[in-house]
Design brief:
The structure is a single chain. The protein is mainly alpha-helical and 360 residues long. The protein is 75% helix and 0% strand. The protein contains 16 helices and no strands. Helix 1 (2-27) packs antiparallel against helix 10 and helix 1 packs across helix 11. It is globular, with a radius of gyration of 22 Å. It starts with a helix and ends in a 10-residue tail after the last helix.
Length: 360
């Protein structure tokens, strides 16, 4: 699920980057009328994948170097939000969502649900970012400052743009606010944001592949190639189709990641008492702390299926038809709680529940 999630996100990010690059060429007058965006986007995606591949051959140093260069896009994003709020505040405060339902509580809950489900789909990214941290306490502040704070703030850019100008494309509404120069800044911002995030995601995917026993001795360049190749294929062959259908993909990520996170939290806090067996993670014997049944945890599999059923029972991720107490509880929170409780009970019944194995 981690690999599928990150490949999907990376494909969207680099296709979005390619679209922004195409728009930028058009705004600057560098795009010939004889060349369509459908021709530029696949080529730009392939070029971006090639650049990322060679950058990440350095490993974590490549991620750190590019991140230092692209960090300024966060400040640009806050400036864009300030422009929209300061220029269009009366319209923003009076705006009404186009697809809002009569039930205001349902609308509010759905907004919270979309925020939870989309944030949980970044779970693998966060794991890759903090994998080298010496302890959880050291990792909390960078995660909150790096994702917890800027992601909601920058998301307000698209939200405000949709409410006021009926478009989430910052290039379009910044052109309305400040003309072509502002549109160029917006396109550079969008390109930098998507490109930088994709680099972290592709690195995370390659690290994830190394956790498979069959791939642990595979050269880094080959793992990286295997990770970025699906993104390049999607970007070259079906960029428009994937971009149009990504909402469906994201909805199903919410269905899977909410119960998965509930299981992980129950395992770490309730069953293992916040202890991690480092030797057990890499041990290959059947008596290891994480061996379970030939490497599969039956209690976790059943709990995951139950959590997914709870989510879909409360909210259809395709039609957004809801039932039961959804508008009071959301779908992600009950799914996570239900999966966590089922996992704890199943682990006790199965008889292979961990007993707080010591770190080391």
């Amino acid at each position: 699920m981690q690999i599928i999630s990150i490949i999907g996100w990376n494909s969207l990010l680099l296709i979005f980057f390619a679209k922004s690059a195409t728009q930028l060429l058009g705004v600057l007058g560098l795009l010939s009328p004889a060349i369509s965006a459908r021709q530029i986007v696949p080529a730009a995606t392939l070029l971006a994948c090639t650049f990322i591949y060679f950058s990440l051959l350095w490993g974590a140093r490549g991620v750190a170097t590019i991140s230092k260069i692209l960090v300024a896009h966060v400040l640009i994003g806050l400036w864009m939000l300030y422009l929209l709020v300061s220029h269009r505040w009366p319209e923003l405060s009076a705006a009404r969502p186009a697809l809002a339902r009569p039930d205001r509580l349902w609308n509010y809950t759905t907004g919270i649900e979309l925020g939870i489900s989309s944030t949980l789909s970044w779970w693998p990214y966060v794991g890759a970012m903090i994998r080298m941290a010496p302890n959880a306490r050291t990792a909390v502040l960078p995660v909150m400052l790096g994702m917890g704070a800027p992601v909601p703030l920058l998301s307000l850019i698209g939200l405000a743009g949709v409410l006021v100008l009926k478009t989430s494309d910052p290039a379009q509404w910044l052109r309305t606010v400040g003309g072509t120069p502002y549109a160029i800044v917006a396109l550079l911002f969008v390109g930098a944001a998507n490109f930088g995030t994709a680099i972290a995601g592709i690195y995370s995917s390659a690290i994830g592949l190394r956790n498979f026993a069959a791939l642990e001795r595979t050269p880094w360049w080959l793992l990286l190639l295997a990770t970025i190749a699906p993104v390049a294929v999607i970007g070259m062959l079906i960029p428009e189709l994937f971009f149009a259908k990504f909402g469906t993909f994201l909805a199903f990520l919410g269905v899977g990641f909410a119960p998965l996170c509930g299981i992980q939290m129950a395992d770490h806090f309730v069953l293992r008492h916040r202890r991690v067996s480092l030797t057990g993670i890499y041990a290959r014997d059947r008596a290891g702390a994480y061996a379970y049944l030939h490497g599969f945890n039956p209690a976790a599999v059943v709990a995951l299926a139950l959590g997914c059923a709870v989510y879909i029972g409360l909210l259809n991720p395709l039609t957004f038809a809801s039932s039961g107490p959804y508008k009071f509880l959301t779908a992600s929170l009950p799914a996570a709680l239900g999966a966590g409780v089922a996992y704890v009970v199943g682990s006790r019944v199965y008889g292979r529940h961990p007993r707080g194995t010591a770190t080391g």
